[in-house]
């Protein structure tokens, strides 16, 4: 099952470390749901594509590809992981189905009323789990300390991956505005379990 917690930004460890508070500040899946993050877990089987085919059909995904993130397979490994960890958004959904390995998506939590510091929710994913981040949501990605992940990416059109790095002018982007209007409310706060 997908796990999530408040990211401890004061932890000086590598971004690939868990960055948990002590005690951990777990985030219930209902909070992810309220932010538009959808997730599924499926027991890994070697020959049953029905799980992915069902999601593809329901959501209109017509193309897929598979990527492997490891020091051996990814050119410019460290620079590429740094690029993935730069806060960005997309103008379409980001959907990933993990086939092997593990990693973290961090999503921006709603600001608590009266507070200016932003919090991040770290979402840990392992093989057999699928996640969809909505268009317009600020997020970042990194591998965990295992430094390996193989995943399927799904697309509604031709495969593309166009990150828009966070910048003040993105607040006027129609996809960002739609995300904020739909999911972020001024009085929202992150619920820890």
From TrEMBL:
GO terms for biological process: L-methionine salvage from methylthioadenosine. Signal peptide: none annotated. This is Acireductone dioxygenase. It is an enzyme of class 1 (oxidoreductase). GO terms for cellular component: cytoplasm; nucleus. Binds either 1 Fe or Ni cation per monomer. Iron-binding promotes an acireductone dioxygenase reaction producing 2-keto-4-methylthiobutyrate, while nickel-binding promotes an acireductone dioxygenase reaction producing 3-(methylsulfanyl)propanoate. Its EC number is 1.13.11.54, 1.13.11.53. PANTHER family: ACIREDUCTONE DIOXYGENASE. Its cofactor is Fe(2+); Ni(2+). Pfam families: ARD (PF03079). It comes from Geranomyces variabilis. Transmembrane segments: none annotated. Catalyzes 2 different reactions between oxygen and the acireductone 1,2-dihydroxy-3-keto-5-methylthiopentene (DHK-MTPene) depending upon the metal bound in the active site. Fe-containing acireductone dioxygenase (Fe-ARD) produces formate and 2-keto-4-methylthiobutyrate (KMTB), the alpha-ketoacid precursor of methionine in the methionine recycle pathway. Ni-containing acireductone dioxygenase (Ni-ARD) produces methylthiopropionate, carbon monoxide and formate, and does not lie on the methionine recycle pathway. It comes from the Eukaryota.
């Amino acid at each position: 099952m997908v796990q999530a917690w408040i990211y401890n930004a004061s932890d000086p460890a590598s971004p690939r470390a868990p960055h948990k508070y002590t005690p951990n500040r777990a985030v219930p899946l209902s909070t992810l749901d309220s932010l538009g993050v959808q997730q599924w877990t499926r027991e890994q089987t070697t020959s049953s594509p029905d799980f992915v085919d069902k999601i593809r059909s329901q959501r209109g995904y017509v193309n897929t590809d598979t990527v492997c993130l490891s020091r051996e397979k990814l050119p410019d490994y460290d620079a590429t992981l740094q690029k993935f960890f730069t806060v960005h958004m997309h103008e379409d959904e980001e959907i990933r189905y993990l086939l092997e390995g593990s990693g973290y998506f961090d999503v921006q939590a709603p600001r608590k009323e009266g507070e200016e510091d932003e919090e991040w929710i770290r979402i840990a994913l392992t093989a057999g789990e699928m996640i969809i981040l909505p268009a317009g949501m600020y997020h970042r990605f990194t591998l965990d300390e295992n430094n390996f992940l193989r995943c399927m990416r799904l697309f509604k059109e031709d495969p593309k991956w166009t990150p828009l790095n966070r910048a003040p002018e993105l607040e006027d982007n129609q996809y960002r505005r739609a995300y904020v209007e739909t999911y972020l409310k001024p009085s929202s706060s992150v619920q820890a379990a």
